[in-house]
Structure formats: structure tokens, C-alpha cells
Design goal:
The chain has eight helices and ten strands. Strand 5, helix 5 and strand 6 form a beta-alpha-beta unit. The termini are close together.
Length: about 250
């Protein structure tokens, strides 16, 4: 949600097209060839999931095939506190494709991982959003000049453990969508089905979760009636939605 706000600002400011990664993955074939014009950008803007990039971001990198001229590649990771080795993981995946990450940034945003923590107080949310808006303009100056070697990231404490062991456990065991439910507040509006990046939600009377889950929690946070829960732990917790989406 926050990353979409940032990506929209960046794409408009740089005059670049904006693409939604899940839609690109649905469209792409192994032979797809991303042809780029001279001076083009290739930016990856995404949320950090358990001190690592979402799997769908790495899947996109693994499928990208670029010919002719190489673009200026940058990444922007959003997180509540720290990113661990997220940028390093992105850089290594790009290198496997013969691509270079020119610059990378971390932008602190309000916590949206309601499974682990309650929503932050309104004053903290406003403070983080204001600081993020200031930082994005500094980032835009760097991107506009296509500066290389700028890595303004926030690894935080114990990045090797968090992005290694913890992230591996998250990918293996913490992306189970079987515990999602919708209570009697659900009015069947279908928003959760519409916004699920993995297309893993179907709504008839109430939503049903199946297939893969990236644990973005968009369905839970953006449910207009607060009907969606994950087990018992979210019943008494708040929700976070970026103001642009309200």
C-alpha cells in the first residue's frame, strides 16, 4: 500500500510507466524480452516481508530478459523499522541476470504487519508519513541524475540472522492463508478478491482463501468492515491503510 504511493510519485516525477509486479508476472513468458530505450529506468519498489523482498519480486527478476541497452536500475524497499539484507538479496539476484543495481534506498513507513504487532498510534503514523514524503524528494534528486553507488538503506541489527534464518522460516511456514476468516461483518463487497496480488481470494457470499499467499495482509488491512481476521490474534488489533487508499 505504502510502496504503491511511493511508486506512483516516482513514476510521475521521472516520466516513467508504472507496472504492477503481480500483473507483469501473469503476463510474462520465459521468452519475454524487456527492450529499453536509452536512458530508461528500471525501478523496483516493494515492501519488506520479514527482512527480505517478497518472493514475487525475486520471481520477476528471475524472469526478466533485457537486450540492447541496459537501464538504470534502482530499488526502494519500504518497512516499519529495518530491512535486514533485503537490498543485498535484490542485488545478488540481479547480478545472476547480468544486471547491476545502481542505487538502493529504504523508506520507513507505518507498520502494516498486524499479525505481529498492533497498528501504530495516529501520531506515529503521521510522523512516519511526513518523514517519508521528505525522503522521497531527496531520492528523486538522486534518481533524476542517475547517480550510481548510493545505497541509503537501513540493515538494522542482526541482518544476517533476520534475512537468513527468520526470512527462510517466514517463507516456509508463515505464509499459510488457511487461518484467514471473515466474520459476520462481511458484506461480500469483493474488495479483498480485487486487491489480492496472488489472485488467491474468491468471494461468493464471503471470501475463500486458496492457493499461494505472499502475506501482504492487504485483504485484512483494507477490509472496509474489519471483517477479515487471521485466527484470534487480530480481533482486537487496529488496521493500517495509507491515506491515499481511504
Amino acid at each position: 500500500m505504502d510502496f504503491l504511493h511511493l511508486a506512483s510519485i516516482i513514476s510521475r516525477s521521472l516520466g516513467q510507466d508504472l507496472y504492477f509486479i503481480p500483473e507483469e508476472l501473469s503476463r510474462m513468458r520465459e521468452s519475454d524480452d524487456y527492450r529499453v530505450e536509452p536512458g530508461a529506468y528500471l525501478g523496483l519498489v516493494f515492501p519488506v516481508h520479514a527482512w527480505g523482498p517478497p518472493k514475487i519480486v525475486l520471481d520477476l527478476i528471475d524472469k526478466i530478459v533485457l537486450s540492447d541497452r541496459k537501464p538504470y536500475i534502482f530499488s526502494i524497499a519500504t518497512c516499519a523499522e529495518e530491512e535486514g539484507r533485503t537490498t543485498e538479496i535484490i542485488r545478488r539476484h540481479l547480478e545472476k541476470k547480468g544486471l547491476t543495481l545502481a542505487s538502493a534506498f529504504t523508506v520507513i513507513m507505518p507498520n502494516s504487519y498486524i499479525l505481529g504487532y498492533d497498528a501504530e498510534p495516529e501520531d506515529i503514523v503521521e510522523e512516519k508519513l511526513a518523514a517519508a514524503d521528505l525522503k522521497i524528494w531527496d531520492i528523486l534528486k538522486i534518481l533524476d541524475n542517475k547517480e550510481a553507488g548510493v545505497f541509503d538503506t537501513i540493515p538494522g541489527s542482526m541482518p544476517l540472522i533476520r534475512s537468513g534464518i527468520v526470512n527462510r522460516l517466514f517463507k516456509g511456514f508463515a505464509r499459510d492463508n488457511k487461518r484467514f476468516t471473515a466474520n459476520d461483518n462481511c458484506d461480500g463487497c469483493g474488495l479483498c478478491q480485487e486487491i489480492c496480488p496472488m489472485h488467491s481470494i474468491s468471494v461468493t457470499d464471503k471470501p475463500i482463501w486458496s492457493g499461494d499467499c505472499t502475506m501482504c495482509l492487504a485483504c485484512l488491512n483494507r477490509c472496509p468492515t474489519h471483517a477479515i481476521q487471521y485466527g484470534k490474534k487480530t480481533e482486537d488489533r487496529g488496521r493500517y491503510v495509507h491515506p491515499d487508499l481511504l
